[in-house]
Design brief:
This protein has about 475 residues and is an alpha+beta fold. The protein contains seven helices and 32 strands.
Length: about 475
């Protein structure tokens, strides 16, 4: 019998661990707008029909162990600011009970947003329950309340909830109080102008629950001082593994990032002329991070030099992922390149010069919105003059030049028999080179010579071969 006791204890521990792993998520409470304005039409359907269908889809996509409650306002009486009712208790696990209640609901009354939020939050306080509240409304407060004040006060009292609001067909000028409420309630305001937008908003809202880790890094996207709706994806800097993501909805989006370095990929969901951008960010332990992503252009003033003097070169401006987003030929003068804000590598290649250092990458150039950054690179070269003669006669010959240590071919040409090309000028990076000269014409057939020559920065080394 004594042997069985440890076995039962072990089994009990296993069952307890299993039960903890299968613990149901905190409940979601929908507050549904059944005010008279829901009879208004969008795309040939009433907002009431659209909301009912979209909410049914969102509810049916929830996990089977998700408890779901429902509150509605305006569904019984016209002009009554107290027409607010709990229709389905938070302990409910039946999806059909929610969808049936919504589909059979009338739309009659006013829009008591503050009173509805207060009733919902007080129910959580009285039952000592934490929950995600999702308010769907097509109108603004019509009963002299302030939902932002209600939510802010509740948070100071320590009531544990997250509030999302999906604004259905609202004007931008009508959303200030709603955004204030979601900011205070640790959630997001989602703007929906049609069925698709409502679906996206509810999908996002039901996935960002009170059980998620609290966001510790915020993102705001803008262009010309105005908010931009954008999708944000966060990946680990070293592995590119996706960690988190959010949508800004022309507001502030939040993600949770453990301490470390990340790439933030931001793609606008409006104004197709705006290109996405990738920005390096870092999350620091016990600190709230923030990044404002401005799609206002920033400028790079690029200057390429050779031996401290202006020099012609080509350039490519690349994102951290290697995408070329800009470039220019410098012609030895400062060239201005405009790109989205972000961190870039600039690859420059000096023209007319030869050697192992004719290309250079200027790394991690940070471009900020509305600002200009000065960037330059100074190449180093010297000159080798290679000529071929027979007596006083110029000899046409092929010249091949290798960098001596690496053995890499870096330059080649012909001298011909003109004073303008014989001796032939080679602009080379400083170093020691192996030069092979081979005569071209029959009267000098078989004539060749190999030698080394040292090229120093800013100096000219001349070598004349005599056949």
């Amino acid at each position: 019998m004594k042997l069985l006791i440890p076995l039962f204890c072990a089994l009990g521990l296993i069952f307890q661990t299993s039960a903890q792993e299968q613990k149901a998520p905190s409940p979601i409470l929908f507050i549904y707008d059944a005010s008279g304005s829901m009879w208004g039409q969008l795309d040939g359907k009433t907002k009431k029909e659209i909301a009912s269908e979209v909410l049914a889809t969102a509810v049916n996509n929830l996990p089977d162990n998700q408890n779901i409650g429902l509150m509605a306002y305006g569904h019984n009486k016209k002009g009554d600011c107290s027409d607010i009712e709990f229709l389905v208790d938070l302990q409910n696990a039946s999806k059909s009970q929610i969808t049936n209640a919504v589909s059979g609901m009338n739309a009659l009354g006013k829009t008591p947003l503050a009173r509805s939020a207060a009733l919902a939050i007080n129910s959580l306080k009285n039952s000592n329950t934490k929950a995600t509240i999702i308010l769907i409304t097509d109108g603004i407060e019509s009963c002299d309340g302030d939902i932002c004040d209600v939510v802010s006060t509740a948070k100071t009292e320590g009531i544990d909830f997250k509030l999302h609001i999906v604004g259905f067909g609202l004007k931008e000028s009508e959303t200030e109080q709603l955004k204030c409420a979601t900011d205070a309630g640790g959630g997001t305001y989602y703007d929906a102008s049609n069925a698709s937008g409502l679906s996206e908003g509810l999908t996002e809202a039901t996935s960002q629950t009170i059980d998620d880790p609290k966001g510790n890094f915020s993102i705001f996207a803008a262009k010309n001082g105005k908010p931009v709706d954008a999708w944000v994806k966060i990946v680990k800097a070293d592995t590119n593994k996706e960690v988190d993501g959010t949508r800004t909805y022309r507001d502030t989006g939040w993600v949770y990032l453990p301490p470390g370095k990340y790439k933030m990929i931001v793609n606008p969901l409006e104004n197709t002329k705006i290109k996405g951008t990738t920005i390096n960010i870092e999350s620091i332990k016990d600190k709230i991070g923030h990044k404002t992503v401005s799609f206002d252009g920033g400028k790079i003033n690029l200057l390429t030099l050779n031996n401290n003097e202006g020099w012609d070169a080509t350039s490519k401006v690349k994102t951290q992922d290697g995408e070329v987003v800009g470039g220019s030929r410098t012609y030895g003068r400062t060239q201005t390149i405009e790109v989205n804000p972000g961190t870039y590598d600039i690859e420059v290649m000096g023209l007319r010069m030869k050697g192992l250092e004719t290309k250079y990458t200027i790394e991690d150039v940070i471009v900020e919105p509305g600002k200009t950054i000065e960037v330059s690179h100074n190449f180093k070269t010297g000159i080798a003059m290679i000529g071929v003669k027979s007596g006083e006669t110029l000899v046409d010959a092929v010249v091949s030049i290798k960098e001596k240590i690496s053995g890499k071919n870096v330059a080649g040409s012909r001298t011909y028999t003109s004073n303008s090309s014989n001796p032939r000028e080679f602009i080379l990076n400083p170093g020691i080179y192996e030069v092979k000269v081979s005569a071209v014409k029959k009267e000098y057939a078989g004539k060749k010579e190999t030698f080394t020559i040292e090229v120093k920065q800013g100096e000219t080394a001349t070598k004349i071969i005599h056949f």
